[in-house]
Amino acid sequence: MEKDPDGVHQIPKPIKGLFLDQERKVVDWAVFDRNLHKIKHSGVTIDTGYDLGQHSEYDVRNAARAYIREKGALPAGMNLEDLIGRLRPFFARGPGKALEGRAAMEALVAKPEFALSDQEAEFLRDTHIFRDAPTVAGQYQEKQRNGVGNFYQLPAEVQTTIIDWTWAFGTKDDSDHTRAFWQHVYRGEWAQLRRELESNTLDVGPNRAYQSVDYVRRRRALGALLGKALDRGWPENGGAC
C-alpha cells in the first residue's frame, strides 16, 4: 500500500459513502440485538463503524476545521456547515436528543436527503485519520513492548490495520471491546492477531452478540491485510525482521 503525503495509509475497505444502500438499510444492524431491541447510544453509522451517535457536533466540526487549516481548503464543491447541518440530528450531543436506533432508521427512510456523497464520507474519513493518527502513534510508542517504538516504522499494512480499528472503536485501548486488540498490538503478537481477525474470534466483549455481517467482513479483511505484511516477511511476534 502507498503512503499519502502525511505518512498515513488509506483505510483498506472503500468507504461506501451513503447512509442508504440499494436496499435502504439505513442504520447498520449492529444497533440492534437479535430481538431488535435498540442498544443504548447506537445510531446512524457511516460505512462500517463510524457511529454518529458516539460523536458530538463539536468534535466533528473541530476535527474538520483543523484538517481544512492544514490542507488549505475544503474539497471542491463541499460546504462544511451544510454537511454538519444534515448530520446534526444524529450526533451524540447537541441542541436536542440525538436520533438513535429505529427512530434514526425511520428518519433516514423518510428523508433520503440525509445521505452523504462519496466525497463527503471520504472527507469525514480523512479528518478522522488526520485527528487520530498522531494520538495512535503516541499511544503506541508509549505502550509498545515489541521492539518497534515508532508507529510509522511499522509496515504499511500494520499501520492501516490499527488506524482502521479506530474508525469503528476509537483510540481507547482499555475497554471490553478494544482491550484484546491493543494487547496484541503492544506485544507484537501479529500472527495471533491475524488469526483472530480472520476467524472473527477476537474478543470484542459484549459487542460480539449483535454485530452484523458487515463488521465480521471488515474484521476478516483486516486480518487478510495484516497477513500481507506477515507473508512478506514481517515477524509473527515482535518487530525485528
Task: Report the average pLDDT across residues.
Answer: 75
Shape: globular
Number of separate domains: 2
SSE run: EEHHHHHHHH
Per DSSP, what share of the residues sits in E-state strands of 2 or more residues? Answer: under 5%
| Gyration radius, rounded | 18 Å
The strand line-up of the biggest sheet is: 1-2
Largest sheet: 2 strands, antiparallel
GO molecular function: lysozyme activity
Pfam families: Pesticin
Domain Pesticin C-terminal: 38-190
GO biological process, one term: killing of cells of another organism
Q: Could you name the key traits of this structure?
A:
241 residues, 2 domains, two-stranded antiparallel sheet, disordered N terminus, Pesticin_C, Lysozyme_dom_sf, lysozyme activity, Calcium-binding protein
What does the secondary structure layout of this molecule look like, with pairings?
Layout: E1 45-46, E2 50-51, H1 57-71, H2 80-87, H3 101-110, H4 118-143, H5 156-169, H6 179-187, H7 190-198, H8 213-231
Antiparallel strand pairs: 1-2
Helix pairs in contact: 1-4, 4-5, 5-8, 7-8
